[in-house]
Amino acid sequence: MKVFQEINSPLRTIMTPGPVEVDPRVLRAMSTPILGQFDPAFTNMMNETMEMLRQVFQTKNQWAFPVDGTSRAGIEAVLCSVIEPGDKVLIPIFGRFGHLLTEIAERNGAEIHNIECEWGTVFDQQVIIDEMKRVKPKVLAIVHGETSTGCMQPLDMIGPACRELDVLCIVDAVATIGGTEVKVDEWQLDAVIGGTQKCLSVPSGMAPITYNDRVEQVLSVRKKVEKGVATEQDKVDVQQPIRSNYFDLSQLQDYWGPRRLNHHTEATSMLYALREGVRIVLQEGLNERFARHRFHEKALMEGIKAMGLTLFNDVPWKLPMVTCVNIPAGVDGDSVRMMLLQQFGIEIASSFGPLHGKIWRIGSMGYSCRKENILFVLAALEAVLIRHDASIEVGKGLQAALDVYESSNLVVN
Question: pTM score > 0.85 for this model?
Answer without folding.
Answer: yes
